[in-house]
Amino acid sequence: xxxxxxxxxxxxxxxxxxxxxxxxxxxxxxxxxxxxxxxxxxxxxxxxxxxxxxxxxxxxxxxxxxxxxxxxxxxxxxxxxxxxxxxxxxxxxxxxxxxxxxxxxxxxxxxxxxxxxxxxxxxxxxxxxxxxxxxxxxxxxxxxxxxxxxxxxxxxxxxxxxxxxxxxxxxxxxxxxxxxxxxxxxxxxxxxxxxxxxxxxxxxxxxxxxxxxxxxxxxxxxxxxxxxxxxxxxxxxxxxxxxx
Length: 244
What we know:
- This is OST-HTH/LOTUS domain-containing protein.
- By secondary structure, this protein is an alpha/beta fold.
- It has 10 helices and 9 strands.
- Strands 3-2-1-4-5-6 form a 6-stranded parallel beta sheet, sandwiched between helices. Strands 7-9-8 form a 3-stranded antiparallel beta sheet.
- Helix 2 (about 50-55) links the parallel strand 2 and strand 3.
- The longest helix is centred in the N-terminal third of the chain and has 16 residues, at about 70-85.
- It starts with a strand and ends with a strand.
């Protein structure tokens, strides 16, 4: 059964171009029953959002910038998030922002037992990323959008530029996670590996490295060995992995 999610978007801090892809991504994790975007709608910079809000049933919340240099949008989002938390209408939150000001909010929501998903750009500061249960980069959604449309040579090049090269740091993280879960023969169930990787590093996502799923990413790294086993309870094979 889907969990109900509150989606709170920092309109001052997030580009509007991939809102459709963003909402499709959020739907994978739950039912977005509350969808709000915060910003000063008198500001021409937010004009690109207006049609998208109707198409995606997102409610705009007007927040005037009362003082220069102070972000009133952050305060409005935080106050609303706490009101929603105490209403007991949702089981999780999706905070869409690249702003580290929401770090304490994410921490507080998780302390209250909420599942917290963050979505933002790759420039998002690490404290906000690690405060979430899962953090998804908007750049990944951009890549997926380009894949589903007819690609020009330029868009393919842009997509390649947006894909990270996996480093020794991530390989060591995967290896240590396999070791944490391995049986006496060194094998670990890949589903458990993926879950623990997410807990250790909320922004770990195979799509960051150009792979739609964790299995092909693991297969592409020579440090690991994969074993596909029959599943007596279903038609999909069980995938196990171990360090070479």
